[in-house]
Amino acid sequence: MISRPRQPTMDQVAEVAGVSRATVSRVINNAASVAPSIREAVQRAITATGYVPNVAARSLVTRRSNSVALVISEPDRPDDHSFLNRIFTDPYFGRVTAGATGALRPHDVHLVVVPTDAADQHQVIRYLRQGHVDGVLLISSNEHDPLPAQVHALGIPAVLSSRPSGPLPVSYVDVDQRAGAALAAAHLLSRGCRELATINGPLDIPAGQERLDGFRSYLGQSSALSIASNALPRHVPAVTGDFTRAGGEAAARALLEAHPAIDGLFVASDLMAEGALRAVQDRGRRVPQDVAVVGFDDSSVALECRPPLTTVRQPVEEMAAEMAELLMAHIDMPGRSPRSVIFQPTLVLRESA
Amino acid sequence: MISRPRQPTMDQVAEVAGVSRATVSRVINNAASVAPSIREAVQRAITATGYVPNVAARSLVTRRSNSVALVISEPDRPDDHSFLNRIFTDPYFGRVTAGATGALRPHDVHLVVVPTDAADQHQVIRYLRQGHVDGVLLISSNEHDPLPAQVHALGIPAVLSSRPSGPLPVSYVDVDQRAGAALAAAHLLSRGCRELATINGPLDIPAGQERLDGFRSYLGQSSALSIASNALPRHVPAVTGDFTRAGGEAAARALLEAHPAIDGLFVASDLMAEGALRAVQDRGRRVPQDVAVVGFDDSSVALECRPPLTTVRQPVEEMAAEMAELLMAHIDMPGRSPRSVIFQPTLVLRESA
DNA sequence: TTGTAGGCGTTATCAG
DNA sequence: CTGATAACGCCTACAA
């Protein structure tokens, strides 16, 4: 059996380079003022010995771990197993991860992905308190999720992925949900649809509520259009889905059952829209000729739908990158006051509407 | 601005409890022999002060981080962005994560998910050398991936998710791929299919190669069957897909174009099978009446297919849990000799075949 | 510009 | 059973 050789320490590098430990430390953290010749000698010693700094020792003194957590909180899912499955299946989280890691790389900071459901939450809190990470990117969509408040109470730097439900002095990044829904409504109207309906997300999730509000209130306001053409329905039919494919399918089925004349459908997520497409087509109705469908997210499933989905695009990667930047700023400047950054969504035209 | 109060240290707890630091340490690590009364007093002091051990200090002395990395390596994907998207979209990785975290929890060990493509590999190596983690669960399917060998050279405890391509003395967990493919072949034959074909995975991935081999060689051997009925085709048509939905669809299209009489199809992954289903149905052929389709993985998409997919099930969660247990054993007993654990797949009957 | 020395918060080895 | 005391590997005043 070959036992693993212990990592070389800074002292060994110093000895090889013929300098003191402090000097080695200086060139590693490229502190100013190290004679070029010495610096070079140290570099050589480092590569010669294969030295790599010990993170534990370093962060013990710097009080920095150089990593941040991406906490994905879904308190509602009781079943841990299906919960993780969902997280790793929903393209949204992949985009967030991609955006965040990209922004973090220049800062030389690692991202630790921490999925959590209700049962885990205290574990997560403990994890954060132990100093594993310097800050938290918190993805929490559920309005009643206690985690944002708890994390804030910890005093650890944090950035949320959407407006916190209560008044919490914390930074967040969000998309203008109402504007996105209005974009969808306007497009459906402009292509001539008059029997509109929507499949909204869970109403205890702000995004679910706001997309519904945005859709309805735009239709309520567009009196110009409603005068120019047939009157719009006073009451826009809506059925609630759960942001899953199956949920979207069931919701669409119910909707078409109750309102067979529907010719325009706004679905609050692409995943649900994919299910809705099936339901619509199962009833023998063509998309977009008979029923036009607009999704939300512009996730990768939008392209896999048939027909490809017209959808409201959130710049998720950019948003995640912005979250990361905000977080780094808070970490580097403790006491910096919280701020929010709101992104405007855009409409991506494909074939479904 | 409220500045965050520093975490209480062990000394403070000791002072509150009226004991020495060493004693506090003992109750925390519940070392043997601490007087019950003292232990209780310390516990009280801990909750009173809200003490949480500092992981950096601890792992500096124990040389343990109490976390392991789940490295997901896909050296082929040049585009980082789509790469992460794929990882977080493929249900397989979610299952792995679920299985591993579940097994790790009792050990009080955290899982750090580290996706990596070719460009990142040296970063990953550096990360591992820095001592962030005590060991590595390495998911690497590509035969030419240099990472397994590099990780092994590091001397850090590691467990692979499949047999390494070269002779590497390292533990791994795998499923009997050939047996799984044979299961599929046997089932298709038994339901009366005689014009069999397969959509195989990339041949530079062992799983891709072995599933193809297993399928073909079972058919070659089943002379009993081929005598009892019409002779089987000597050459079983096969087209290579890339383990994506779109790839499966394209492959199926090509297959049906070249061999319109196909009545039984083995697809080497559920994701590809979902695409294949579309292609088959687009040609106006019914599944399973005209063409029976068997997938591989029993991932969550198998249930979302229509019709729901008959598929070969890998017990992915259990396999990941086994990987985690093997890894913990290696971590706790350095020098333990490597071993492999092979799981037998099963056939899950649904409606597609 | 470089070296010396103290301390970061734990665990672990000893005595007592 | 409990308490000193010495590491663990690094950073950082401070001194030279």
Task: Explain what this protein looks like in three dimensions.
- The longest helix of chain A is centred in the C-terminal third of the chain and has 17 residues, at 316-332.
- Chain A folds into three domains: 10-62, Orthogonal Bundle (434 Repressor (Amino-terminal Domain)); 67-175 and 316-343, Response regulator (Rossmann fold, 3-Layer(aba) Sandwich), CATH 3.40.50; 177-313, 3-Layer(aba) Sandwich (Rossmann fold), CATH 3.40.50.2300.
- The first copy, chain A, has 15 helices and twelve strands.
- The first copy, chain A, has helices at 10-17, 21-28, 36-49, 55-62, 80-87, 91-104, 121-129, 147-154, 177-190, 206-221, 223-228, 245-258, 270-282, 301-304, 316-332; strands spanning 67-73, 110-116, 136-140, 158-160, 171-175, 196-200, 238-240, 264-267, 292-297, 310-313, 340-343, 346-348.
- In chain A, α14 links the parallel β9 and β10 (310-313).
- In chain A, strands 2-1-3-4-5-11 form a six-stranded parallel sheet, with helices on both faces. A six-stranded mixed sheet of chain A has the order 7-6-8-9-10-12, with helices on both faces.
- By secondary structure, chain A is α/β, with parallel strands linked by helices.
- In chain A, α12 (245-258) crosses α13 (270-282).
- The first copy, chain A, is elongated, with a radius of gyration of 26 Å.
- At the A-B interface, α4, α5, α6, β2 and α7 of A face α4, α5, α6, β2 and α7 of B.
- The structure holds a DNA duplex (16 and 16 nucleotides).
